[in-house]
């Protein structure tokens, strides 16, 4: 209601047709606290193809303009893109192939979203009046080379998303942070280059990115871990054909808080691999279809006894191929606030029964199920009584072996005792036992043997 009154008052003020007169646009006062901006927000998604051509005024206190999903093909100069108050502009999900050089008269703009369009290049002059731009999203466009993007004079840019542009091959020849040319500046804090067809990360790739704290390099064709910038707080290496990870890959990453290693080709989590990540709070190792081995020393030896040393808060091993986890991990894993072990083919035997001592919320127990033994296939581990977690077959073999050894030793002892030269008579008596009395002496022994086995 208040919003409407404000809006009416506001519309009355402006003389030319305001964008807010359009029924299909929604204009409201953005009332979100703790955001960069706070003021008018205009939403004109799903409106029309030539929204930029219509001679609409943008009310002069608008902070955020949403023009997403309007089938815009060319961005050109327009009253809508001329504002000294606009801080955020969303042009995502259009059909933009071209941005005219003087389109943006937006000196205060901090956030620009051009994702999901058909851009192949952007003239460097396009950004010349946008010195305050901090965030630029160009994901899902048609860029094939980085040199056609030209961001170098976006001197405030610290967060860029380039996902799903085929620029990986071109990075062999031109560095993303090329100081002389078109590259990103060393102000970059957050870089997302998921799905860019990158085969290898060239040496010294991040050498000029000395403030980078977030790197998303998932869904590429990287086969081995590269030299990771030590300033990173968040690293996503998921969905790459990485066959092996080792402790050396993750040493000295003292700032790293969140690490995603989902869907790699790794077979094992080796000893000490996460030991030297003192800030790590969140670790995901989901959908690792070859991962069958998780070393009990993955987090080092100290955490096994002293949970105070264990700073991780969240761990997910969902959907991998683990069959067991060492009981020694009960102490550190018991410290986690979130632990997802679902979707692994767990072997529910006496070695794994400890897992039931973990405090897991319902959302993490629903698909926590046994794979082996076959009698327990698909049983929910947290619904299953402890007595079913047996190592019966192994124990039975062990018992049989003990019984057989004892029996053999017994016979040898008796034989030695009775048949020594000084006890000839006794030995004769022993021989008689193979006569009618045999049944009586063998039977009780056989009976007790069976009892042992059936226990
Ligand atoms: C991915 O990398 C492998 C080996 O590095 C290479 O043989 C293959 O062609 C690459 N795939 C693509 C799509 O580039
Ligand atoms: C796990 O690793 C150990 C030692 O490296 C190896 O003996 C064992 O076969 C592995 N287990 C699986 C299931 O790969």
From TrEMBL:
Keywords: Leucine-rich repeat, Membrane, Repeat, Signal, Transmembrane, Transmembrane helix. Gene3D superfamilies: Ribonuclease Inhibitor (3.80.10.10). GO terms for cellular component: plasma membrane. The chain crosses the membrane at residues 400-420. Pfam families: LRR_8. Residues 1-16 form the signal peptide. It comes from the Eukaryota. InterPro entries: Leu-rich_rpt (IPR001611), Leu-rich_rpt_typical-subtyp (IPR003591), LRR_dom_sf (IPR032675), LRR_TM_domain-containing (IPR050541). Coiled coil: none annotated. PANTHER family: ANTIGEN BSP, PUTATIVE-RELATED, INSULIN LIKE GROWTH FACTOR BINDING PROTEIN ACID LABILE SUBUNIT. This is Leucine-rich repeat neuronal protein 3-like. It comes from Trichoplusia ni. The gene is LOC113499915.
